[in-house]
């Protein structure tokens, strides 16, 4: 059984969602933000001292989006399609991690994550501008399609929407990007996403 180390109120959320979409048996090993993630026992699972991490038999992985690619590979198509679409999944996954997540975190740290006294309005505005630039690209990509690669949900949707979950749930303004807004609502209201969101809300 897949073991996801972390809590749903962290990036483990996107891995829980992926496991739900894959229909694989999984358990969440509750590791939160306390000193436990820097303790020797957990560093054997993730030497970075961060959550999430995942065990699947002898395989131990860190990096939430890599974990999701593994989970999707276990499920196969349509969650992880073959051929050129597999390359498109990689493109959107790497874009999510390298282009979108830094801007999302910059906005998030300075609007809802840090205590109010530690927030910087200029940094929040810079994060919002960075996000809007990426959302312009995404708006164009979605076009008339329901999902990133066409009309079928893949792990690319889970990874990119998963990276955007924090900003979406904290009321980032998507009004200028109506296709992105509709796509996010479509993704986050799938049964697999609702199951993951229920775990996050219960925590
Ligand atoms: N790129 C990593 C980031 C992991 C990460 O920063 N996780 C946060 C929780 S969402 C964490 O463990 N923070 C605690 C710390 O950095 O000490 C991933 O996607 O898995």
| Low-confidence spans | none
Secondary structure tally: strands: 4
Q: Mean pLDDT, as a whole number?
A: 97
What's the N-to-C terminus distance?
22 Å
Give every kind of bound small molecule, once each. Answer: glutathione
CATH domain class name of the largest domain: Mainly Alpha
Main sheet properties: 4 strands, mixed
Describe the strand arrangement of the main beta sheet, using strand numbers: 2-1-3-4
**Which structural class matches the secondary elements?**
alpha+beta
Q: Give the CATH topology of the largest domain.
A: Glutathione S-transferase Yfyf (Class Pi), Chain A, domain 2
- How much helix, percentage-wise, in residues? 55-70%
Radius of gyration: 17 Å
SS summary, helix count: 8
Estimate the global geometry from the Cα principal axes.
globular
What's the helix-strand series?
Answer: EHEHEEHHHHHH
Q: Do you know the CATH architecture of the largest domain?
A: Up-down Bundle
Structural commentary:
The protein is an alpha+beta fold. The chain folds into 2 domains: 77 residues, 3-Layer(aba) Sandwich (Glutaredoxin); 110 residues, Glutathione S-transferase Yfyf (Class Pi), Chain A, domain 2. It is built from 8 helices and 4 strands; from the N terminus they run E-H-E-H-E-E-H-H-H-H-H-H. The protein has a 4-stranded mixed sheet, covered by helices on one side. Strand 1, helix 1 and strand 2 form a beta-alpha-beta unit. Helix 1 packs antiparallel against helix 8, helix 4 packs antiparallel against helix 5 and helix 5 packs across helix 7. The structure holds glutathione.
């Amino acid at each position: 059984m897949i073991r996801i180390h972390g809590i749903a109120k962290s990036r483990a959320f996107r891995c829980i969602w992926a496991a739900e979409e894959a229909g694989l048996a999984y358990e969440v090993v509750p590791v939160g933000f306390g000193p436990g993630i820097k303790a020797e026992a957990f560093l054997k699972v993730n030497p970075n001292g961060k959550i999430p991490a995942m065990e699947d038999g002898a395989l131990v992985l860190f990096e939430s989006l890599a974990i999701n690619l593994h989970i999707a590979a276990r499920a196969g198509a349509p969650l992880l399609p073959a051929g050129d679409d597999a390359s498109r999944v990689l493109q959107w996954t790497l874009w999510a991690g390298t282009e979108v997540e830094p801007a999302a975190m910059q906005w998030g740290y300075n609007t809802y994550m840090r205590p109010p006294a530690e927030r910087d309005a200029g940094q929040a505005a810079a994060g919002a501008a960075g996000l809007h630039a990426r959302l312009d690209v995404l708006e164009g990509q979605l076009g008339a399609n329901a999902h990133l690669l066409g009309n079928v949900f893949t792990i690319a949707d889970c990874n990119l929407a998963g990276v955007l979950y924090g900003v979406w749930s904290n009321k980032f303004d998507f009004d200028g990007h109506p296709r992105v807004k509709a796509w996010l609502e479509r993704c986050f209201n799938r049964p697999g996403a609702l199951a993951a969101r229920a775990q996050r809300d219960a925590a």
